[in-house]
Amino acid sequence: MAVRKDVAFVHDVIRSEGIARRYMIVNGFDGALTVLALCVGFLINRQTDLDLVLSAGISASVALAVSGVNSAWLSESAERKRQLMELESAMLRDLKGSRHERIRVWLVLSIALSNGITPLLLGLLILMPIGLQRWGLIHFDEPMRASVLIGLSLLFFLGALTGRISGEQWLLSGLRALLVAGITAILIFALTF
Amino acid sequence: MIDTNITRLVLDVLKPRQPGILEFAETIASLLADTSVEVAVLEIDEQTETVAVKVRGNALDYHCLEKGITDMGASVHSIDEVDVCSTSEKD
Q: How confident is the model at residue B89 (pLDDT cuts 50, 70, 90)?
């Protein structure tokens, strides 16, 4: 019963603050853009070794996931500790053993995991056509182009999502995200070709 | 032999803004069987709320209520009203 209430409380706090959603979008965008940029870079330089593309893409996704968990863990645990101390000062009591103290670790862990898992999932989603082709499960004529297409769709979706949250036009926000991807591709082309 | 039971309590409680009063009242009601709980917000600050908690029941256990309230990060400032009834035990 107490655990169920603690879990519900963690869920309420995360939902009311919208913090996990924010982290998921920010780090998801980072992950999707990084893996998309890798695919674009390989495509521009006519790299056709799928093993190399997969290895680089998965490594980048894993690194972003670990970095996401670590950075959110460090910043959130410090922030939550400060919030608890402020609440203790407002309540004029020590909150040790209370639900607020108990859920702190769960709260930080949930936020850190959502921050880390999103870039990993989006990265793997982008790499899916290359992986499926490599392992002979589905045949794509142009697996790299299919990956780039998935990457652009995901970026558009994330952009549209931020537009919807902020009450802006989702189409414009989605196109703005695609513009960022376009600028990235131009920079990669200019620096590597 | 006369036995006494607390049947109504009015508590002045300082609580954090979270949990909200819905969950706060539900949690208090879930502590003891056959109780009714009323929570009224008296004052709202940036991080805290002062609430009046009215609990009615046949035999209220104050310490159990206080423990549940404390577990939610709140603290009982005072017991403002109390109703106690006495019953003679039938041997």
A: low
Predicted interface score ipTM higher than 0.90: no
8-state DSSP, A108: H
**How far apart (Å, rounded) are the C-alpha atoms in residues A66 and A69?**
5
The CB-side HSE value for B45 (13 A sphere, CA atoms) comes to 11
Q: Show residues of chain A in contact with B20, CB under 8 Å.
A: 12
CA distance B28 to A57: 52
List the single residue in A8, A16, A95 with the smallest CB-CB distance to B73. Answer: A95
The predicted-structure confidence for B25-66, as pLDDT tens digits, reads as follows 999 999 998 899 999 999 999 899 999 999 999 999 999 999
- E strand residue ranges, chain B: 2-16, 35-44, 48-57, 75-88
CB pairs below 8 Å between A and B: how many? 45
Domains and their CATH numbers in chain B: 2-85 (3.30.70.1340)
Domain boundaries, chain A: 2-192
- Report the distance separating Cα A112 and Cα A151, nearest Å: 23
Q: Which residues pair with B78 in a beta bridge?
A: B12
pLDDT in tens, A110-122: 889 988 999 999 9
Q: What is the pTM of this model?
A: 0.73
